[in-house]
Amino acid sequence: MEVFHAHFTEYAYPMHVHDAWTLLIVDDGAVRYDLDRHEHGTPLGTVTLLPPHVPHNGSPATPDGFRKRVVYLDTSRLGSDLIGRAVDTPGLRDPVLRLRVGQLHGALAHPGDELEAESRLSLVGERLCEHLRRTATAEHRPDPVLARSLRELLDARVVDGVSLEEAARLLHAHPAHLVRAFSGAYGIAPHQYLMSRRVGRARRLLLDGLAPGEAASAAGFYDQAHLTRHFKKLVGVTPGRYRRSSR
């Protein structure tokens, strides 16, 4: 629903509630807060999940304040039946989850990377549910047929793209299972595969003489900056330099 990054040194939140789930990581400092009349904190490396409709506050727990990143999730991601469990254990010590939440923030910062953001959000939501339902991570069996079906869909939609939600609906699979099946079969995440196909298309267009801005649009990128970021990551040079060197 919303992303919020902030650095507070003295400000203290009064008691308040949210309509959404609050998924919080603290990068510097620490926060102390009361949730349902119980005091909690944010030890380094933890992930904090505050449930909707439950009063809480928040204030710096260190002299230099705190720097935080927050994602607000609606109840379609986490059901209201999990609120009680979240009240009992809002602090989650899970390095993998924290890493994935950080990666989600990174993906959300870049327009055009919606498939990556959807994929990362799906895996984050799955792991949060596992914590709240006290279930162990199930063994994920290979599903090459599903993986191939997703690859064919991505190949057919290189320029137009496809959301994870639409792909899951078309292929009758849970989004998180779709991501795991593809990554397990090909050793690359769906969003990485799509971007590599787009970069390949952009390379051919640049060799044909198109300017980087034109190639970006024709290859399915959000804008030229979006193309440049992924092109340089995969090719090692900017699109403009690649185009000039090919003459």
From TrEMBL:
Keywords of the record: DNA-binding, Transcription, Transcription regulation
GO molecular function, one term: sequence-specific DNA binding
PROSITE patterns: HTH_ARAC_FAMILY_2 (PS01124)
Domain HTH araC/xylS-type as annotated: residue spans: 148-245
SUPFAM superfamilies: Homeodomain-like (SSF46689), Regulatory protein AraC (SSF51215)
Annotated InterPro entries: AraC-bd, AraC_XylS_family_regulators, Homeodomain-like_sf, HTH-like, HTH_AraC
Keyword flag RNA-binding: no
Protein name: AraC family transcriptional regulator
Protein species of origin: Streptomyces roseochromogenus subsp. oscitans DS 12.976
